[in-house]
Amino acid sequence: MKRMPARAALALAATALLAAAPALAQDEAATQKIDTGDTAWMLTSTALVLLMTIPGLALFYAGMVRKKNVLATMMQSFTITALVTVVWMVAGYSLAFGEGNAWIGDFSRVFLAGLGETWDKPFSLGSGDSAVATTIPESVFLMFQMTFAIITPALITGAFADRMRFSALVLFNVLWSLLVYAPVAHWVWHPNGWIFALGALDFAGGTVVHINAGVAGLVCAVVLGRRVGYGNDNMAPYNLSLAVIGAALLWVGWFGFNAGSAVGAGARAGMAMLVTQIAAAGAALAWMFAEWATKGKPSVLGVISGAVAGLVAITPASGFVLPGPALLIGVVAGLSGFWGATALKHMCGYDDSLDAFGVHGICGIVGSLMVGFLAYGPLSATAALPEGSPGNLEQFMKQAYATAAVFAFSAIGTFVLLKVTDVAVGLRVPEEEEREGLDVTQHGERIA
Fold first, then answer.
1. Confidence band of 31 (pLDDT split at 50, 70, 90)
2. What pTM was computed for the model?
3. Is the pLDDT of residue 49 over 80?
4. pLDDT value at position 127?
5. What is the pLDDT of residues 161-189, one digit of tens each?
6. How far is CA 74 from the centre of its chain?
């Protein structure tokens, strides 16, 4: 066989490389593509988190108020779902997840501008060296985050149940979503955010959702004052069976909340789901036994409140801890929530109607602080940070700093917005309307 001249061989090789270049480029681009498995899980998680508000939270809260306020309480969760959806599309998402700076996003995504050009491409949060790449489209990411933006203000309504004007609810929630929730979400979850840069851990919303909403609820309870007849009238729940159904829906939906925050269908999502279940169970039992020991009987309201307390506390830690620490977090949360909803509330004298602060505020703080010591580094390890974020005193101090900052910002921001709302439309219904019930006076309807 005749040997090919060296020059001809080199020319042929060069031609082959040039011909292969487009294919190689296409292969490289193909590695940066949407993963259908991850996307399917995130679509499922998004539906689960929305389920937490409607019907989960709507039923949970409605089952704990008096008969004359059941429809109004459900109406609050339902309306907030619709209201925040539009607010998120118009400006909330842009302020929370736009590039912006360390404190707030920008207006680059107002009315979701630019989504038409990127709708079928994998989404990266942030830019440059700090960008966080995902394998899902931006439409799924922003919808998933929308469900968090929806449930956070809905949680606050538990603190002022039975006494806020519906017009005040609407105005306050628009302002609060844009001026309190969006900045905190940017601080904690955007690579440019100052809490993100600090290295504080919040996997699924301990600060952004629970401390934020819990503290806002406390401020609402104090500013609006106690319900008419508080401490004298019978304010027993109308229908605890509704609350049990709501709590069960919250528990199931929380798997989307926590495991979905892995933004993919992988091992970390699996661990987040496992520790969520364990913490919820531990907290339910801890609250139940604490109530049994102090009051003589374990109540239905107590055990379902305990489960929610555990779900709240494991939220910031769910992507960072193993099962043993998760059980510990759950037990501490159950006991802390029981104390917050009983002793603390009575000691301080405020009327947090459905214990928004007692459960979400207190247990959010518990989880945010405990992950500082209990985090297991390999769960968060990356190529850039092979040791991950292990628990130690330094991490605990970061957690404490972030917790205090969100607490203060939420308290001050909520107070200012309540005062603005009061001047604009008035905050509280008149006493005679409160006695008659919000179902009739605010919506013209009643349960037969």
1. low
2. 0.91
3. yes
4. 85
5. 999 999 999 999 999 999 999 999 999 99
6. 20
pLDDT tier at 27, thresholds 50, 70, 90: very low
